[in-house]
Amino acid sequence: MKRIMMAGALVVMMILMYWYAQSGVTYPKATVDTLGLGEKKSDIVKKLSDQCIELWITLHEAEESIYNTQFSLQETPDGYEVILYDREGREIYSEWYPKEPWVKEVAEGILEIGISTGSPARYTFYFRKEDGKISDTFFNARVVGEKYIAHRPLAGEHWYNAPLILTDIFEEGILYQEIYKDFSVTADLMSAIYNIELIDEEHIMLEYCTGEDYSVVNEVVEIENTK
Predict the structure, then answer these.
(1) pTM
(2) Are 1 and 74 in contact (CB under 8 A)?
(3) Are 123 and 114 in contact (CB under 8 A)?
(4) How many angstroms separate the first and last alpha carbons of the chain?
(5) What is the rounded distance in angstroms from the CA atom of residue 208 to the CA atom of residue 191?
(6) Model confidence over 158-169: pLDDT tens digits?
(7) Among 3, 7, 61, 67, which residue's beta carbon has the most beta carbons within 10 A?
């Protein structure tokens, strides 16, 4: 957004200079030399006119880009900055990261913003473009059926027995379900879950490893308390 504002200000400045050039007033030689326009006023008018048009196109394309994607990822001298915008192009979130994060659309109108802190450790949160809703941050979560999140929280003394939690991405009370199975103990809890697939509105297919021998189980699990 800052770049757009600067470009807009530059467009205004160029337009003023264009009008000034047409007004019959002669530019100081230092200004003419700086702009590289030659000493003919007609050259100044044409060059400024062309530059105004180019800047206006650049500004328009930048605005369109933000309205369509509603995010920007900018490299800075100290890392990377992610900025999220509402549908009107207003900045609603900004965060700096020491390494490059990813921003991708994982469902219609929903962006995933994530950063890896080592294999297989990654943190993600989600942004709904329609209303600017931002989710909590999840650890090693997976999107299920473009509207749910599956994750296993690292909490408590017996964290290795943590259930698989299935909830709606923005935790608005649409779904919250704890799935308890004899998951094999793994350093990354979610690595015990091989696959989660939404079959229909009431069932998921869960593939996971179980027991000390890491046997593979495929099981249909019923989704509870959906609205």
Answers:
(1) 0.69
(2) no
(3) yes
(4) 38
(5) 9
(6) 677 899 999 999
(7) 7
Which residue type does 32 have?
Answer: V
CB 150 within 8 A of CB 164: yes
Q: pLDDT of 71-104, one tens digit each?
A: 999 999 989 999 999 999 999 999 999 999 999 9
Query: Rounded to an integer, what distance in angstroms lies between the CA atom of residue 102 and that of residue 61?
Result: 22
Residue whose token pair is 């003919």: 40
Residue 195 CA to residue 147 CA, distance in Å, equals: 16
The identity of residue 101, as a single letter, is: P
Check if the beta carbon of residue 110 is closer than 8 Å to that of residue 128.
yes
Position 141: which residue type?
A
141 contacts 151 by C-beta, under 8 angstroms? yes
Residue-by-residue DSSP string for 175-215? -EEEE---BPP-SSGGGGEEEEEEEETTEEEEEEEETTTTE
Q: What share of the chain is helix, strand, coil (3-state, %, to 5)?
A: 30, 40, 35
Question: What residue type is assigned to position 181 of the chain?
Answer: K
Distance CA 197, CA 206 (A): 7
* Nearest partner of 224 among 159, 155, 165, 162, judged by Cα: 165
